[in-house]
Amino acid sequence: VTPRPSLHLLVVGLGRVGRRLLSLLDESHDRLPFTWSLAGVCSRSLGVAFDPAGLDAADWRGATAMGATRAGAGTAAGAALLDEALPALRRECAAGHVVVIETTVLDAARGEPAIAHVRTALDAGAHVVTANKGPAAFAFHELAARAERAGRAFLFESAVMDGVPVFSLATEAMPGVRVSAFRGVVNTTCGYILTAMERGVPMATALAEMQAQGIAEADPTLDVDGWDAAAKAAVLANVFLDARITPLDVSRTGIRDVDPEALRRVAAAGQRLRLVSWGRRDGARVEVHAAPVALAADDPLAVVSGLENALYLATDHLGEVGIVQRDGGLTQTAYGLLADLTRISRHLAR
Ligand SMILES: NC(=O)c1ccc[n+]([C@@H]2O[C@H](COP(=O)([O-])OP(=O)(O)OC[C@H]3O[C@@H](n4cnc5c(N)ncnc54)[C@H](OP(=O)(O)O)[C@@H]3O)[C@@H](O)[C@H]2O)c1
Known about the structure:
By secondary structure, the protein is α/β, with parallel strands linked by helices. 39% of the residues lie in helices and 23% in strands.
C-alpha cells in the first residue's frame, strides 16, 4: 500500500471559509487520500502563527484571539506568514508537499494582496489553492504560467459556484473540448435576494439573511453592485474563452436599483429576473457581461432560485453542457478547496 502523501498547509486568511475548511478536513479524515498538518495561519486581526512541526488545528477553527506571535500585522499578515514559513519549509516545498490556501477577502479593484500571495507561494515551490476570485480574475494567465514553470498547482475550483466542479469538469472531464460561450447565475447572494423579492421580502432583509449565513461577501456591496458576478465572469472568460480581461473590463450592472414592483411584474408575466454572468468569444473578439436579465420561463436559468447556482457552457463537441448547484454555502466552498487539495495529493502519489 502506497503511504498517503502528507501536506503542510499554510492558511492565508482565516475567516468563514478558512475555518470551515479546517473543520471539514477534520470531519473528512477517514476519506482523505492525504494526511495534513497545519503549519501556519494568519489573518489581519489575528496576526501570524507558524510552527513547522504543526499547529493544533482545533485551536484555530474558532480562534478569536491570536494569543501567539506577531498580532496586529494587518494586511501585511499574509506576506509576513509566507516570508517566515516558506524559507523554513524549503525542503518540504522542494518535495512538493506545501500548499498555500488563499482565503483572504476579494479585492474587486486589483485582486491584491491575493495575487502577491499566490506569486510568492508558487515561486517558493508551494502549490496554491484559493477560494478568492481575485487571482484568476486579474492574473489567470500569468499565474497559470508561473505555476507551470514551477511544476506546481494553481487551483481555484471554489472561486466560482462554491464546490461544484466547474473548472475540473472542463479540464479533466471534457479534454479537448472548446468552450465558445458561458452563461450562468453564479452569485448566490443576489439569486437569493431576487427570489425573496419576488415574494415581497425587502432587499435589505434578504441581504441580512445572506450575511447571517456567511454567504454574502465581507463587503456586501460587492454582491449587490455586481462586482462578485463580474469577477466570476472574468475568471470564466479568462479560463474558458482564453480572454485577457479583469473584472474592470466586464460590462456590469448590479441589483441595487432593481425596483420591487418591476420585479413582481416580471414574475407575474412568467419571467424571472436574475443576475446573469455571460460571455462569448467571436473570432478575436470577447464580450463579457454581468447584469440583471428578465429570463423567459423556458430558459434553463429561469428555474434557478434561492441558494441555487447554474452555469451553461456552449462547446464545440458536446453542444451545451450545464452544471447546477442546488445548495450553495460555506461547506460547499470549503469542499472546493478540499477537492483541490485532493487533486494535488493524487498527483504526488503517482
Ligand atoms: N463565503 C462564501 O460563501 C464564499 C464562497 C466562495 C468564495 N468565497 C471567497 O473566499 C474568500 C474568503 O471568504 P470568507 O467568506 O471566508 O471571508 P471572511 O470571512 O471575510 O474572511 C477573510 C479572511 O481574510 C483575512 N484577510 C484579509 N486580508 C488579509 C491579508 N492581507 N492577509 C491576511 N489575512 C487577510 C481576514 O482577516 P480578519 O478577519 O482578521 O480581518 C479574514 O480572516 C473571499 O475571497 C470570498 O470571495 C467565499
